Amino acid sequence: MLGMIRRHAQNTGSKRAEQILVRWAEVRPLFLRVVPNDYGRVLEAQRQMRQKGLSPEEAEMAAFELNTKDAARLYGK
């Protein structure tokens, strides 16, 4: 997130972004990361698959397949 704000400040000259960067330690707790439920499930499944020893690519595919099956079950497909 810090990198995005730095790039924004550099690319736009935003004074607000500069203020945030100067006060980063203070304002960081005010930022939230919003993740859609489906995406959060995929990220968690990938983490679990990597813990089982799968490569990042294998974990990504396994998580995708698992989430697809869950979606089909949830939505009756």
Q: How many domains is the backbone divided into?
A: 2
Q: Please report the number of helical segments.
A: 5
Alpha-carbon distance between the termini?
Answer: 37 Å
Radius of gyration: 18 Å
Return the average pLDDT rounded to an integer: 88
Say how many strands there are: 0
Topology pattern, helix = H, strand = E:
HHHHH
What is the approximate shape? elongated
Write the layout of secondary structure elements.
Blueprint: H1 2-12, H2 15-22, H3 24-27, H4 37-51, H5 56-75
Helix pairs in contact: 1-2, 4-5
Structure description:
The protein is 75% helix and 0% strand. The longest helix is centred in the last third of the chain and has 20 residues, at 56-75. The protein has 77 residues and is mostly helical. The chain has 5 helices and no strands. It folds into 2 domains: 1-33, no CATH class; 37-75, no CATH class. The mean pLDDT is 88.
Provide key terms for this protein.
0% strand; 2 domains; elongated; 77 residues; 5 helices; mainly alpha
What can be said about this structure in brief?
With 77 residues, this protein is mainly α. The chain is 75% helix and 0% strand.
